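Thread: Newbie trying to understand structure tokens

Hi all, I'm a second-year student working on a class project, and my supervisor (Dr. K.) asked me to get a predicted structure for one chain before our next meeting. I've only ever worked with sequences, so writing a 3D structure as a token string is new to me. If someone could post the tokens and maybe explain what I'm looking at, I'd be very grateful. Here's the chain:
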Amino acid sequence: MSEMTVKKLCGQIGLPFEAAEAGRIPGEKEAQLRKLFEEDEPSFYQALQKEKTEYQTALYLYMKWGAESYPSYKEAGISDRIYYDTFRDMEIWYRHCLKETGIPGMKQYQWTSLPIKRKIYRLGRLQYEPSRLKDENWEEGKEIPVLEVHIPEGEPLGIETARESFKEAKQFFKEVVPYKYEGFHCESWLLSPKLHDLLPEDGNILQFQKLFFVYHEMPARQAEERVFGEVSDKTEDYPERTSLQRALKAYLQKGNKVGMGCGFIEPEGSD
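---
Reply by user tm_fold:
Sure, no problem. This is what the structure looks like when written as tokens:
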């Protein structure tokens, strides 16, 4: 088995190696934080928050621990492609931290901890998190095992690439990392029924939405955050660079809201 290094991992996912190294801490302190990370995550996050270089330290630790997690991926029979694709989330959220704070680090470090412990996998265009759903709006709140679907930013969400991802997920969680689930579940602004008022029915977003049975919509402003890059109470200041931005801005200025839809797909669905 070839060795994985932080420099190699950074190169494969497009994250500057210098940024990952900037938050380096002494080995003894790292060992203390690693013990908390493994045994008491809430205390680990609290310890990180006390660091003067919180975001840089988080990025350093996660890239180092991410490289060290490589053998566990290989022992599970997971390909290098899936390993690298899964850790590409680090680069996405590194960019967000740099844009939002000016700090080359990791701000969303609770979310980005998942790949290190192999709690999430990116399979093609989508991410899948083995989870348990307990939603009073679905099956009277009965707790059921599901694959939670997440949609990372980046390339367009084409309907065929989404279908290919679901197909790969079915095989992956059957043959590579066995997990018995009762369906795919997703919570996203992309599943908001309000989008039918804004977007063409044959467009990628609504075609993706139609893969799901959307059973509930939660009040949230995720759509504004994802479409405009921020949430503001001054909707008139939102940019209008894309057709989606123009359509959503006009919709909001009329007093309408776009929430987060909750959707479900049966285990053999999505085809």
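A couple of things are worth pointing out once you decode it. The beta strands are 121-123, 126-133, 144-150, 184-188, 213-218, 260-265. The first strand starts at residue 121 and ends at 123. Feel free to ask follow-ups in this thread.
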